[in-house]
Write a structure and sequence with these properties.
heterodimer, A: about 170 residues, mainly alpha, Rna Polymerase Sigma Factor, Chain: A, Arc Repressor Mutant, subunit A, 2 domains, 9 helices, globular, disordered C terminus, B: about 160 residues, alpha+beta, Trypsin Inhibitor V, Chain A, 3-stranded mixed β-sheet, two-stranded antiparallel sheet, elongated
């Protein structure tokens, strides 16, 4: 096993879990998320020299992940619009907090891929607008406008804040 | 609680609820990376060889995304010494899949021959040789018969 392979394995062991979480939020599906991380890492392996010499290898790989995810999301959008009756329609949950989670999952699925990526980068990976813009190779203004569009949709989809649910037990 | 805070909570709750594995299997990921590296490299090589470009690049591109490797990872169980699989007379794309799945790097040469265009004629080291993982195996691929481009005319004009 050569040096490239060793470094790469180390990276996979250390970082694939975190990448998988981001990928899951990008795709909304475990299988698709694993596939996205796998193909991201395969791309990173091919460009391993560039990954290793980047200021922040993790951010470099995350950038591959997000952009691959957006492209795959756009392809999926086209095929999934053709399905009249999505088989994965969620069964209603009995507990309120699970219901909130389910609503969020559905609302995310309805976002266009780039808006979804902005939401994940800003509110899950906790990146600044500048860092998100860098990953998406777009301007800070675009991140702002995409985030604001996404938030408007999410606010609608999530509805009014169920105060009593979030406050119980606190 | 505004929508941004709900998102911060909601997104991590969503990721937690998925109970994702803590890490992906490094060996499988590495194999896929190697396979992609070979595909990327040999695609570039093939693009430069104008004569056989389309004949080979098309099956290669297809197999790069859809086929699963023909050889099971069982071959990889003894990490020190591997036996080189026999891919002679297979189409190049399938041969590359087999080789990379078995843990070898691949280099491609081509030569004229009587075998059909795009099939592997020789491999070096030869099939069945015992060698270390990651060894570069050179596959020599048929570029079709030498006369294919300059057919001897059987009729007089």
């Amino acid at each position: 096993m050569n040096r490239r392979d060793e470094e790469f394995r180390e990276f996979v062991v250390g970082r694939s879990g975190a990448l998988l979480r981001t990928a899951y939020l990008m795709t909304g599906d475990r299988g698709l998320a694993e596939d996205l991380v796998q193909s991201t890492l395969a791309k990173a392996y091919v460009a391993w020299g560039r990954v290793q010499s980047a200021d922040n290898p993790d951010a470099y790989v995350r950038r591959i992940l997000i952009n691959t995810g957006i492209r795959a999301g756009r392809r999926r959008q086209i095929t999934e619009i053709l399905r009249a009756d999505p088989p994965e329609a969620p069964a209603p949950d009995t507990t309120a907090h699970v219901d909130e989670r389910q609503r969020l999952a559905t609302a995310l699925t309805d976002l266009p891929p780039r808006q979804r990526a902005v939401v994940v980068l800003r509110y899950f990976d906790d990146l600044s607008e500048v860092a998100a813009a860098e990953i998406l190779s777009c301007s800070v203004g675009t991140v702002k406008s995409q985030a604001s569009k996404a938030l408007t949709k999410l606010r609608l989809a999530l509805g009014e804040v169920p105060e009593e649910v979030h406050r119980d037990g606190c | 609680m505004d929508v941004e805070d709900r998102l911060r909570h909601g997104l991590s709750a969503l990721a937690d609820a998925a109970q994702l594995p803590a890490t992906l299997p490094a060996d499988a990921v590495l194999r896929r990376g190697r396979r992609r590296r070979v595909t990327v490299r040999s695609s570039a090589l093939i693009a430069s060889a104008a004569v056989v470009a389309t004949a080979i690049a098309v099956p290669l591109a297809i197999s790069g995304t859809h086929h699963t490797p023909a050889v099971k990872p069982a071959v990889i169980q003894s990490p020190q010494v591997l036996s080189v699989p026999d891919v002679t007379l297979q189409p190049l794309a399938a041969a590359i899949q087999t080789m990379t799945a078995a843990g070898f790097e691949v280099q491609v040469n081509r030569t004229t021959g009587l075998e059909p265009l795009g099939v592997v004629i020789y491999e070096s080291p030869a099939a069945g040789s015992r060698t270390t993982p990651g060894t570069t195996v050179t596959l020599t691929v048929s570029a079709g018969p030498a006369s294919a481009t300059s057919q001897p005319s059987t009729t007089t004009p």
